[in-house]
Amino acid sequence: MRLDGKTALITGGGRGIGAAIAKRFVDDGAKIVISDIRKDLLEEVAKSLKSKNVEICAGDVTNFEDVQKMVAATVKFGGKIDVLVNNAGIDPGGSIVDIDIALWKKILDVNLNGPFFCMRAAIPEMIKQGGGSIVNIASLAGVRCLPSMPAYCASKGGLIQLALQCALEYGPQKIRSNVVAPGATKTEMLVNAMSSLTKAIKRDAFEVLAESVPLRRAATPDEITGACSFLASDDSAFITGAVLMVDGGAAIVDVSGASVARVGVGWGV
Q1: Hey, which bits of 59-131 come out as E strands?
Q2: Which domain holds residue 14?
Q3: Which end of the chain is more exposed for a tag (fewer CB within 10 A), N or C?
Q4: How many domains does the chain have?
């Protein structure tokens, strides 16, 4: 029960990693408010958790008034906001030349402006109560590049820098800001994104993806939640400005060496 007595706001809590974090936080003793743009998804998650420690607040993280309502709902529900989990995100593709400009703006709006708005609304409440923890869900794509994903990579890289800036500026007020950067995770969003590749290569795209990952597989959403619970808890009381890769080791792989290894020989052999 490492989160016993904590109250948390989790954005993008209607499915995928956000829903998994919601379950983990409740299991670890927290009161939570989950937010998403779709109320029906939030109701499904809340029903599945079967806990009096769950409240929902539908809203759009790109709308600052909605975000203020989310934070207010959290404070009302738990009397405070100890933890903010910036999880809401989208991942459409498109190269720099080809991506629709409106889509580019939308991706940055959700993935970067959304967390900024949430920080802006939550930090004053955290300062009032003497501190808090902000857990930002970025991505391996925030430190590495993906083909035809410039908006997603730029937004997640920007989120990492925003999180570090927050750690620097608000550490004196006992507010910690850290990043969890998942690698490939089998969420509905990524499964849908990979479906066209699976059809094109006539193989499970996740199997191909896993060939260069040291642990040789993608993560499940549940496997991202432990890092989030740790960073939300007092167990990480002296950790801020950290970027925790939860990627099966993918970030350590050199793509040239991985290409050689896939054909069954060693480098230079």
Answers
A1: 83-86
A2: 7-186+221-250
A3: C
A4: 1
